[in-house]
Hints:
Blueprint: H1 2-13, E1 24-27, H2 31-40, H3 44-54, E2 69-70, E3 80-85, E4 88-90, H4 97-107, E5 113-117, E6 125-131, E7 139-145, H5 156-161, E8 163-164, E9 170-171, H6 174-181, E10 187-196, E11 201-206, E12 209-211, E13 220-222, E14 225-227, H7 262-265, E15 279-280, E16 285-288, E17 291-294, E18 297-298, E19 302-303, E20 306-307, E21 310-321
Antiparallel strand pairs: 1-3, 2-6, 3-4, 5-6, 6-7, 7-9, 7-21, 8-9, 10-11, 10-21, 11-14, 12-13, 15-18, 16-17, 19-20
Helix pairs in contact: 1-2
Amino acid sequence: MAWLCAALWICLVAVFPGSDALLINNITLSSAMQEAVSAKGLSANGELEAIRKETSSAKMKNKPTEITHKVEKCSVPCTVHTQKIREEKHYICRCDCTDIIDTVGTFSETPSGRYIIQPEGTDYSFEVFCDMDYRGGGWTVIQKRIDGLIDFQQMWSDYTDGFGDLLGEHWLGLKNIFYIVNQKSTNFMLHVALESEDGNSAYAVYDNFWLEDETQLFKMHVGRYSGTAGDAFRGYRKEDNQNAMLFSTSDSDNDGLSVESCSMMDNKTGWWFNQCGLANLNGPHLVTRKGIQSKIRWDTWTKNEKIVKIKAASMKIRRTYNPYFK
């Protein structure tokens, strides 16, 4: 038990600030290292120096910018997953971004950036972008739109697995989102952030957000709304309501229309359409004679009774209840 605690302690200290030169990937600390720390009670700087010596001959590999999936199980004592990518550090197998800030954040700085997570109850780990700055941090970003560099006119398989650049525009993937929000004894809230073409901002928050699995076509459920952008998921009329709707793409039409496809009418993008609804944050940026035209929609955000034109948007989720840290 003492050896196990020492190993866990070393893993957490390995991500202490002030170790900019430290690059560790898939490295397990040796028993000699653990005994040295246990016997001598090394300081944080001493531990980092010891780890540098232990790992000096390790082979480093750079992560690609695309979303990647690692089929490996996070274990205790932990394997440290630490890399320096574009001057940002990224850590460690935890359940989600809230779990990271509640655990690693207790011992070390946890900056916004790319992290490896493995949701509870799965043996499947993958990379996410964690927003550790907004309202206390711990937000897992599931979608981000900025400038149209990433094509959101994708098929079902792409929306299922995820696509894009985690440091820029991306869609995390329905399967990954499902794994996160369906962890045992957890609830997640959803935060939608919007930016207009003239630089104004608005937001919509839902106090509960979860998806059903792929056999149910990733049906979406949202809870109570609050915010400044209006409740576009439910809209104004029954036929606008996208809550409890199935996900649709241009090659998998699951919306409420019997003849036409909302995805096809909305530039072949994927969303929880319902005849076709007032929201589609995956609408494309189209190149026109007048320049780039955004088709991102959240039609309950209005100004002077006109729908606001949106140039950027993001969706992020955070635990509202953590059973491990009451």
